[in-house]
Amino acid sequence: MAFWKKKPAGEAREVDFSRLPDHVAIIMDGNGRWAKKRGLPRTAGHAAGAEAFRTIAYYCRDIGIPYLTVYAFSTENWRRPQEEVSAIMGLLKNYLLEVLEKMERDGFRVHFFGDLSVLSPDLRDLCLRSMERSKQVPPGHQVNICLNYGGRDELIRAVKAWQADCQAGKADPADLTEEVLSGYLDSAGIPDPDLVIRPSGELRLSNFLPWQSAYAEFWFSDVLWPDFTPEVLNQAIADFQTRDRRFGGV
Ligand code: IPE
Ligand code: IPE
Ligand code: MG
């Protein structure tokens, strides 16, 4: 679209619901600052962030976005105080218990990106059970939760798994392509994100989907994650719809 036909910045654009992105990925950031602004403990920010996540997940399902990927806990987030880590893990457990109860009714598939092996056995079990149960839900709306996820860690795990397959004669080192390596990532079989959103004012990826985001469109906002609403997502999608994605072509 010619630049003079684009609406000026600041004016709300309309979403074209007939051509939504297939895959939206969100770095759910800003919970701590949201709590601090209110004089609350950081853990209260994570609880509010979990509510924002529920709202956005249902909204994506309702408007028909096939894949939503959210960054819930990074490989670096273990550096936080033990109490905060436990609170985040507790919120995740509650959410997964809820998912297991209502998954078929709500029509979501749940999947995880990240190294689940170091999680507590009960949380890991909930993750595995949610993924197993998802197979019974018809495809259409999938939420990928990045939990103990780091893009660099994902690549190392993928290369190690590929190496093991090479040694077992199941893969050939001479045939390594982008497609082959993609098949070993946590996101195997899932299309790359079209739109990556980071709220909270930070302008960085923080190890989120570096391989998969190679050609994603990025959208940043100062809104803190607990304040993120479907209206904010609509702004991001409307902006995304004005972008000219060339993928290296002309
Ligand atoms: C994101 O919010 C949640 C996690 C990283 C688990 P933060 O906790 O990073 O919030 P800020 O960035 O400190 O405000
Ligand atoms: C990224 O946010 C991780 C999640 C939102 C889960 P962080 O708050 O951990 O990122 P940095 O430390 O600001 O880069
Ligand atoms: Mg943060």
Structure, described:
By secondary structure, the protein is α/β, with parallel strands linked by helices. The chain has one domain: Undecaprenyl pyrophosphate synthetase (3-Layer(aba) Sandwich), CATH 3.40.1180. The chain is built from 7 helices and 6 strands. The protein has helices at residues 31-37, 42-63, 82-106, 121-134, 151-167, 178-182, 230-240, and strands at 23-27, 67-74, 109-113, 142-149, 195-198, 217-220. Strands 3-4-2-1-5-6 form a 6-stranded parallel beta sheet, sandwiched between helices. Helix 4 links the parallel strand 3 (109-113) and strand 4. The chain is globular. The two termini are 14 Å apart. The model is unreliable at 1-6 (pLDDT under 50). Residues 28-33, 73, 77, 88, 200 line the site of one 3-methylbut-3-enyl trihydrogen diphosphate. Residues 28-33, 73, 77, 88, 200 line the site of one 3-methylbut-3-enyl trihydrogen diphosphate (IPE).
In short:
This protein has helices spanning 31-37, 42-63, 82-106, 121-134, 151-167, 178-182, 230-240; strands at residues 23-27, 67-74, 109-113, 142-149, 195-198, 217-220.
Count of discrete alpha- or pi-helical segments spanning 4 or more residues: 7
Which sheet architecture does the biggest sheet show? 6 strands, parallel
Bound molecules: 3-methylbut-3-enyl trihydrogen diphosphate, magnesium ion
Helix- and strand-based class?
alpha/beta
Overall geometry comes to globular
Q: What is the domain total for the residues?
A: 1
> In sequence order, what are the helices and strands, one letter per element?
EHHEHEHEHHEEH
CATH topology: Undecaprenyl pyrophosphate synthetase
In percent, how much strand structure appears in the residues? 5-15%
User: What is the β-strand count?
Assistant: 6
- The CATH superfamily appears as Decaprenyl diphosphate synthase-like
> Stretches where pLDDT falls below 50 for ≥5 residues?
1-6
